[in-house]
Amino acid sequence: MSLEDQLEELESAEDFLQYFDVDYEASVVHVNRLHILQRYHDYLQKGAAQMPEDDDAKYAVYKQLLMRAYQDFVVSNAQTEKVFKVFSMGEPQTAFVSLSDIKT
Which residues contact 38 (CB under 8 A, 6 or more apart)? Predict the structure, then answer.
């Protein structure tokens, strides 16, 4: 089974961390699981062009990027890291729609 096939079986942040044998604190993952996975995905996307072909070498790179994504949230938090667009939107946006603009 290839590395990609094995990764397809993983579902949660904990699954990824356990698969790559990354030590983690459950409390950090519990609060930041989606942020960690999104950051991990972002790191993988940025490094896609330089990704090795060999599964063993690729495993090492994937593990390093996962550890980096997890560590981002050990030393920081979701609001500071701004992984998702909602955190970087700034002030709430308001829009005015006049009644004449609404068509029935």
Answer: 83, 84
Q: Which amino acid is at 46?
A: K
Per-residue pLDDT of the chain (104 residues; tens, 9 = 90+): 889 899 999 999 999 999 999 999 999 999 989 989 999 999 999 988 888 889 999 999 999 999 999 999 998 777 767 776 655 555 666 777 777 778 75
The candidate with the shortest Cα–Cα distance to 26, out of 70, 60, 78, is 70
Burial of 58 (0-12, 13-18, 19+ CB in 10 A): middle
Q: Report the predicted TM-score, pTM, of the whole model to 2 decimal places.
A: 0.76
